[in-house]
């Protein structure tokens, strides 16, 4: 396949359990009219055609609530970080990191950020 779309590459490379978990997550997000964005290292890995160990996703809804809903349906477990609006969902054969799209401000260099929900554009601007 010459120059496939990245989403096609992603689904081709996912192990079956990760594929199932991602499809379920997308379905849950759709019921909330929420967009889901692949971000971070997995994007780089797809472009460079390297294996990726997990999925990093940004959503423009409450990522923690979405993660809890996903874990309830998959029998997986979740670790949440409410101060940052993030959750890590882990199950047999997959790992999904979910982050609420956000903006960050810092009171001083080296301090933890003050986090507010934002758009995907806001979120991408704060990333490396």
Short description:
The protein has about 130 residues and is α+β, with helices and mostly antiparallel strands.
Care to describe what's here?
This protein has 128 residues and is of the alpha+beta class. The chain is 39% helix and 27% strand. It has 5 helices and 7 strands. It has helices spanning 6-13, 16-31, 41-47, 63-74, 120-126; strands at 36-38, 55-59, 77-81, 86-91, 94-100, 102-105, 114-117. Strands 1-2-5-4-3 form a 5-stranded mixed beta sheet. A two-stranded antiparallel sheet has the order 6-7. The longest helix has 16 residues, at 16-31. The termini are far apart. The mean pLDDT is 91.
Regions with little confidence, pLDDT below 50 for 5+ residues: none
State the end-to-end distance.
31 Å
Describe the sheet with the most strands. 5 strands, mixed
Number of helices: 5
Number of strands: 7
- Please write the string of helix (H) and strand (E) elements: HHEHEHEEEEEH
Query: In what range is the share of β-strand residues?
Result: 25-35%
Radius of gyration: 15 Å
Widest beta sheet: strand line-up: 1-2-5-4-3
What percent of the residues sit in helical stretches (DSSP H or I)? 25-40%
Mean pLDDT: 91
Q: Which structural class do you get from the secondary structure elements?
A: alpha+beta
